[in-house]
Amino acid sequence: MTREVKETFGNATRTGPAPAPRPGPAPRTSPPAPAALAAKVRTLAPSMTRSMQRVAEAVANDPAGCAALTVTGLAELTGTSEATVVRTARLLGYPGYRDLRLALAGLAAQQQSGRAPAITTDIAVDDPIADVVAKLAHDEQQTLADTAAGLDTAQLGAAVAALAAARRTDVYGFGASGLVAQDLSQKLLRIGLIAHAHSDPHLAVTNAVQLRAGDVAIAITHSGSTTDVVEPLRVAFERGATTVAVTGRPDGPVTQYADHVLTTSTARESELRPAAMSSRTSQLLVVDCLFVGVAQRTYESAAPALAASYEALAHRHRSDRGRP
Fold first, then answer.
1. Fewer CB atoms inside 10 A, N or C side of the chain?
2. DSSP of 124-177
3. pTM score > 0.70 for this model?
4. Which tens digit of pLDDT belongs to each residue from 264-296?
5. CA dist 4 → 121, 148, 309 (Å)
């Protein structure tokens, strides 16, 4: 959703005082690199229509074959329409089908360079523990690579700038995402910034009411539709705070109230490892990127604060060798 639509949506429901003018949107970025195409498909496919899923799966499964097809040919291959093919290309981040074909050709060239095919990572109930370790390690690596490839660095940079200058930061997350929210708030506190993670929905909203321009609110939700996360972000947005969504669904409801959207990827789900668990890996990567970016921008104050917090806790980590 564009910033103009977000502002209109927010104004239509605004009940509190009008927020101060917000800075302009982050600069537009170039279409995803070929390496990011497969990650984009894995991330966005669950939220696509069935016809768009057929197009996305076709280009991800056979980039070389699809790169040789015209828009009409791909529509016929997938049993869809030319309009569906173009819409899918745009949803994946390309201005049009021609740009998607170029990315497919690049991806096909990379795959033909001798890279080994991915192993099957579905975990069975009777898998030996060694196989479980190997499969989980592969999934984690793929998830991190997909998240890094699909992360919009312009949006990330804008979020870092807002955090570095914030009077205060509120982070919302529940369940597995709540653990990630706590991780981010603790990291920011270690470098001397005021940050709070809220895992109680009522407390999250009552705190969001106190935010204003110059503050930052971050919502962490894989589904992008968790009401207890969307609601406080909406309140923060209406109060004028800069809002950030860390989500695996860039078209989810939470992004309606986000000035900056950071998209995460998820390992393939299984009965033993649902999305709520596998999403945490990519969320932690985004959190680390945010923290390091803020620490870089505030290094003169962050470095002494980090050293002081380390020293304050150091005695708890020293071994008691002298004890009997």
1. C
2. PTT--HHHHHHHHHHHHHHHHHHHHHH--HHHHHHHHHHHHH-S-EEEE--THH
3. no
4. 986 655 555 655 566 788 999 999 999 999 999
5. 42, 28, 42
